[in-house]
Prior knowledge:
Chain A is α/β, with parallel strands linked by helices. In chain A, 27% of the residues lie in helices and 22% in strands.
Amino acid sequence: MSASRLSCSVAIIGSWLALAPPTSFAESFAIVNARAYTGEATEPIERATIAVEEGRISSVSANGASPPGARVIDARGGIVTAGLMGAGTQLGLVELYSLKETADQAVAKGPLGAAFDVQYALNANSTLIPQARADGVTRAMSYPTGSADLPFSGLGALLRLDASPDLLERPKAGLFIVTGGIAAMQGAGSRSAQWQLIRNAFDEAKRYRLSDKVRGPRDQLLNHLDAEALQPVVAGHMPLAIFANRESDIRQAVQLGKDYGTRVIVYGGAEAWRVAGLLAANRVGVVLDPVTNLPSSFDDLGVRADNAALLQKAGVTIAFFVPGIQQSHNVGTAIREGAGVAVAHGLPWSEALKAITVNPARIWGIDDHYGRIARGQDADLVLWDGDPLEPTSAALAVYVRGVAMPLDTRQKALRDRYAPQHRQDPWPPAYH
Amino acid sequence: MLDPYPSTYRPLPRVDTLITGATVLDGAGHLLAGANVLLRDGKVAAIGADVTAPAGVTVIDAQGRWVTPGIVDIHTHLGDFPYPFASTDFNHSDVSETTDPNGAHTWAEHSITVQDPAFEAALAAGVTTVQVLPGSANLFGGRGVVLHNVPATTVQAKKFRGAPYSLKMACGENPKYNYGDNGRFPSSRMGNMAGYRDAFLEAQRYLQEWEAYEGGKGDEPPKRDLKMDTLAGVLRGDIKVHIHCYRADEIAELLDLAREFGFRITAFHHAVEAYKIPELLRQSGTCAAVWSDWWGYKQEAFDAIRENAAFLDAAGACVMMHSDSGIVGQRLVLETSKAMAAGQRAGLDIRKEHAITWVTSVPARAMGLGDRIGTLETGRNADLVIWSGDPFSVYTLADQVFIDGALAYDRKDPRRQPTSDLDAGLPATRSQP
């Protein structure tokens, strides 16, 4: 293809981008003529007016009037959804995985096990944050993984991807645990020992509270940091996110939650479809990988492409993450593509959208203010140039709590330096 | 030298077939609406709106569906990094012989587990031809092999007869970390270059000795050396060179290396910075095999952009998509779709009938098989896919997949859905709900 075939679509995109008001505060505005997928009904609201005041959605209605004085943004029939949520990322914790000095997701050594808390490492200037936002993500769970003190990984944080220096929506949002064959191999050697160690830790954490005035040595494996970190878990205040793929481990996870009165979230869940009824009955949410249909290990021999569809049909609350290379660096496109793949394998479209918006919000307990397009919810909104579950579509405008986010990324800066239009320029790209 | 591990491939049982009323992307740059495709004796016999069914031919109505050539994946580890990953693979994976930075004597085909279920998953996704490469831990990773993606109990029964061998090389972080971390050579990028140059110098001498002997000089044949056999094959032009390389500056050094020793590099793989040097690639006739959007998992992948493929294409350089992953390999047209969309958004006019070549005819030509697969031109092997809809959409699945005219996969017919032995006899699995 020759450079002379460059079209004028840059200009067209430019006019769309002008929709985003260049403000850093939450002004009142209304998006009109939107096709609004609210996360509440299966069908969209056509020609919707979404009014936003002080960072919150004040009304949503078909053909509704804009509030007096509010700036009006015409979506021209385009799809508007809630901002997306990455239910499993390491946003803010990782820049380049191979450079350990830029990767803070795991503890290599030292006394921190369950107490390892990722909140202090979060880097709002990470190049991954604008990329995630430009791809439509406004909320994320950033979780610890692969720590030295298996099976405990530590405490994850909920992020809000606004342009503030503080990404934190909620620190210590949940305790993460890794179970399964590979983790057992790297840790205690048997998965049975894994579950025993978890149960013992919970028992010790409970006794620790009762016996904290006792002097002298205790016959206790947990140090005080970890014992204290487990207090909200054994008190039933903090959810327990358990990576488990084999059916036997998923059943152990559910039983653990029942025995200790702790709310369990299953991450991975390759074989969760085998126990869909049990998960639904115990209200255990599953954060699953919708694209991996081959067994990563012998734990996953039952992995299948319609896991999401089977779980949803059984009444399980599902959310999506795509672990591996795409997990954080391309979280927005990866979860949208994953949701699309799940649709191709039987999940209804509206449920797939929920699995990357309101469902992870519900699983992590922030659905009272985020995840749907509804009165009173934070105005996390994305206007798309096409079907958001097609990874070829892009966000035209992204709002977090009513503030339009810049959509610039490092990749776009590189793209502009090396664009074909510059090819005849005698000055090196460093001058562009 | 004759191939000591010859192909025993035989096409699957087949019947002549006419596919009617499809939207066809022919892999040669055309979109044909409402076209019929006749498959006869394992070849594409005719294509066009007015092609009719001879007597006795099976007719498949493809109205509303799309047809493309079979998908060609030039960078896979199917079988040499098989699913499920096992703890024994942590230190002894079959994908790389990690004890010697020159692994030119190792052949990927000797590592292949034919029961890797990723073969069947790729087939169900329309992938009909794969190149299986060794890993990137070494300067010279070893020989790659081209396979028909048909289920078989031996590697030889999958081998694509007459396909040239390839040599996998790697630059940058992987070889220098693999060896440098253990206090061995190479530990730097200049060490990498020195390693290539030393080896090719030796290969030049080896080739001269053999050419002298073959020219009648001397009574005793020179001593054979398996590494040098491969590198001499590169210098002779018999073996195609594929190099794992991310950074633009390193790619440029390797193009000079090829000039220094007089061989051709077929493709740089991964090549996330290829967009920085499109002219160099175009002038040397070297392809880039890339992903749509992978970045950031390592330092040399920091500068990736989603317009990489589109910018190369716009400059007239050869570009194609690859997977390197049994999961991504199931969505190579979607990879193409994402790369095309990024280019369109940057103002480039890229059509589906052109972009589909990035996963069909371009990799086929790069493998030296451009006259046999990769397009639906008359006389080509009848490797093709009938898609449920537009293959550039995430919602589209492969309905039927033909290899050499045989229906190797049918989404609606359980008898034409091959499964790996891995799945046999297990409690309900992905293939047996």
